Amino acid sequence: MFHRRNQRLTGTLAIVTALVALLTIGGAGAAPAAAGSGGDGIGTAKFKTEKGVSNFSASAVTIPYFRSAFTDPTNGATYPYTMVGTDPSKGNVSTTIPTVIIPFKFTFVASADPNVHVLDGTDRVAATVNSPVFQSADIGAAANATASAPPGPPISAAGRTVNEPSDITQLGDAIYRAQWGNTGSGYHVRLGQPAVLPTIAIDVPSNQGSIVIGSRTGSRIGLMSYSWFSSRLINTLNSLHISSRVLPIFLVNNTFLYISTPDNCCVLGYHGAKASLNGNGKQQVNTYMFASYSEQGIFGANPGDSESFIADIHGLRHEVQAWYDDPFVNNVVNPWLTPTAPQYGCTAYLETGDPVVGFGFKVTLNGVTYHPEDEVHYSWFARESPSRAEQGYYTYLNNFADVAHGC
């Protein structure tokens, strides 16, 4: 097992000091959001990974997955990987992974609004279940019609267009199929309709989190210690005894994680994997994720966009697609760096949403408009040219004109 992209949290005094400052957001005399951001100025949206599992046996009890490897033409190194479902080169197999949603209800001792101390993921369950994460829509048509503004040359091609084939299915399945050039085939990797487990109530002490008020949106926003939250999540996962063949999704409402102090915010989601200590040849390997369902406008829009795409299911979409391509948090590639995601610096992980946080498109279902994230395809990380994805794209929204570049 190993731990990626996490930092050790520091002492309580620094946390309390920063919380006092953040509690004033949106109050009298509050500082405005960062110039040009258009958001509430609470921090940069980012995602992380938790512990991973590697070197487990083929007889392990877990989700359906396949193993393969690629050789990077820029350095001659071979990189093994594991991904969800079946190997798309082996034929048109359809896979469905069972899912459960576990809502977290947080009661914060500290709140800038004396009338609001609770942020409850239960309030977002219906919108999440009814979203294109789990329900079918024409994902290709939606991407073509509503794609966010591109990053611009030389990152994206001049005059970039989006022309994905029509594909009526779930978001994850559509983007995964496109990644392998399998849109319109019988190949599928879908999420099962989720069972919703009873809400988990958690009291948040004042030295581990608080509710602040957005300086522009007026939203009630939960900020919480990353390490404190993560220990509660793992404790909950262990206590629920969820089958390792099922994907658990921990859903929170408008709550974001900070690392060390609240001025190092905001983690919207992560995914991880954990293994049982023994299993008599049938080791249990669980995969899991957490995501925040967020209100529009908390995070600012990208240049060229009239609204932010970091809203509603953006966080969950990021984690679902990252899980498709790196379910056990053990896929390492030739290090990459991109100006579209400076918050990650130089990184060597095959995390499909990290390079394109904030880029997305819109899908409307049952009168609700959702903002899923763009995703980077396998071929970009593998430095594979031409890309094997539909239309030869390196991201679903054609936001990258070339393969990944090194640090």
Which terms summarize this structure?
globular; disordered N terminus; 26% strand; alpha/beta; 7 helices; 407 residues; 21 strands
Describe the overall structure.
A hairpin with a 2-residue loop joins strand 20 (363-365) and strand 21 (368-370). Helix 4 packs across helix 6 (314-325). It is built from 7 helices and 21 strands. It is globular and about 55 Å long. The strands form 6 sheets. Strands 1, 5, 6, 10, 11, 12, 13, 14, 15, 16 and 17 form an 11-stranded mixed beta sheet that branches. It is α/β, with parallel strands linked by helices and 407 residues long. Helices cover 16% and strands 26% of the residues. The two termini are 26 Å apart. The chain has helices at 12-22, 125-129, 139-146, 171-179, 226-240, 314-325, 378-381; strands at 46-49, 65-71, 78-84, 94-97, 99-108, 118-120, 137-138, 168-169, 188-191, 195-196, 200-204, 209-213, 220-225, 247-253, 255-258, 265-275, 285-293, 332-336, 347-349, 363-365, 368-370.
Query: Count of DSSP E strands?
Result: 21
Question: How would a textbook summarize the main sheet?
Answer: 11 strands, mixed
| Percent range for β-strand residues | 25-35%
Helix content: 10-25%
User: By helix and strand content, what is the structural category?
Assistant: alpha/beta
Shape annotation = globular
Using only CA atoms, what is the Rg?
A: 20 Å
- Element-level helix/strand string: HEEEEEEHEHEHEEEEEHEEEEHEEEEH
Low-confidence stretches: 1-36
Q: Count of helices?
A: 7
Distance between the termini: 26 Å
